[in-house]
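Input:
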Amino acid sequence: MAYFIVFLLYPALSALYYSFTDWDLRTDAAWVGLANYVDLLSDDVKYPHFWKSVQVTLQYTLIAVPLTLGTALAQALLLNAIRRGSNVFRLLLFLPVVTAEAAVGAIWRWLYDPQYGLVNSFLGLFGIPGQNWLNTPELVIPALAFIAAWQCGISMIIYLAGLKGIPDSIREAAVIDGATPIQRFWRVVFPMLRPTTFYLLVTGVIAALQVFGLVYVIFSGGGGRSVTGGPEQSGLTYVLHLYLFAFRYDAMGAACAMSFILFVFIMIITALQFRFVKQEAS
Amino acid sequence: MIRRVTGTAAGVALLIGLTACGSGSDKAAEAKTLTYWMFQDRTPQAGEVVEKLRTDFEKANGVTVKIVKIPKDDYNTKLGSAIASGSVPDAGILDQPLVARYALDGTIKELPAGTVDEKAYYEGALNTNRVNDKLYGLPVDHTAVALFYNKKFVPTPPKTWDELKQIATKIHQDDPKTAGMVVPKGDGYGAWMWPGIVAGAGGSLVDEKSKKILFDQQPGVDALQLWVDLLPSSPRKITDSDKAFENGLAGMMISGPWDVANIKDQFPDLQFSTAPLPYKTQPAGNIGGENGVVFSKGKNADLAWKWLAYLTDATNNTQLAQALGGFPTNIAAAERDAATFGPDQAAFLEQLKVAQARPSLPQWIQINDEIIAPAIETALSGKATSQQALSDAAAKTRALLGWTG
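Output:
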């Protein structure tokens, strides 16, 4: 309880208070009422890239979440199908999750390299011309979403648990009824996994809306380079934008307001999912 | 053994303490303590230099100097938190573009008249401490970018923009797989370099006194157009590759002295050298580096200024600047020790004589990142002409600052 108050409730409430102030971390906070919120949503002189960061984050979420869930489910089905050595594969597929973010950033920058990158070499095998992945505004979000899908180990483990929870009797019944593997998946396995999918969808969307570390390591080249979110701000995600205002432009009040706008938005999106997405297994 | 050594050391310390007290100087026993924050040492050798400067100062002044070293990436955040909680050091390093912000809100003290001789410092470096014609710190070291060129493709480095374009075109014509030059990008880093190019065409970014934006005038447009013109001979597809210059994929690049050591270390076979930036009308460059400031809420302001003056004086400044990975800001020190900088560093020394300080506006970092960088990128990607991109950026900057000029 003490922990909850000291480390969660108090910071959250003080952030709420500061979101109504103009505060630079150094001088006394000046009460400005709702000005931060109004300016963020409407003043493109003070916050020229606020809506851009919203757009980037929504795009990322729409691509990354389905891609991550699809990859995780495919991996789980494969793991569930093999009898021997599944432990080894499970470890291999889970490794990206426990790899340090800085290392992940370095590896993927190298994989996406326009000259030496393995991604382009691989595409070249199919006659697809190489792309400048991290420096072409249209390709930045898909490239980032792909990395997120590669890091889907946790979702995979949860899907695997869901698969183990489907009684064999149902599957056997389907086999006796003459269902093909594809029918079995769509008519039996997928509906039975619905609660799992729903849980992963809700948590996945919440995580995607808050994506930060990945973008930060990918687009900070070191050598004193400032992170401005990739080419033409195409990778300027909401939380990266918030971070810049909090720690680079000394606008902590506005940054607190941004965090509460995000909080409310996540609440609304989550409520909508609970309302409109099927959750029960059938 | 270890115990005996520590025991002896403790005994010696006790003796020194007793003699200090015994000699009747009660004041020395409660000697002043100065706290100083700086960036984490780059190398163990740099740490030794700082340590020697610290102990010499302590001996000469009968005080204690406590140095706190913080990783560069966390420094501003930690400092901000310390200021917010009122636990500031007496003095500390401050990034150049933050000086204006801290000066205007009273976080740092103005330099008392007569502390140092202003003429002893390079003007560009000293001006990074100047806000509304008053000085709020001393330049501890400074650095600039210069042209790196691969001797295989570039026998003699270009002096002017025209020569630069000719050489870049020739490199790419001779081998389409090689880019002429790594053209900077429209990000925070590229926007930090760009003022040096504008100054090379005789222009500057703003006039703070008359509150006028100048970067959308001809010199600014020409400087941006230079980068746009270089792109055909320096395709991004080549230069966006990691370490394109070091891997011999590009003939030239713009970077700072830190890369000289990096390249020698990681690419010992690369035959490269450095030269001052090519210019249009006059030699010029940008500036970066560290300033030393004194915090208003700290104690011992007089001692703090004395310490900063000591770090930047003719005797010590070269050693310290080299340890910090920069160049001396003290003219006498720089001229006396010019020979100790290798031939690859000479270009940076030349560059620093003509380095221009950034505008001392508290919002400058934000303008650099959020307005100028995207404008550069817009022109480089061909979405707008250089003039359009900069006129648009100037309008946004005026709106943000509330300027009319």
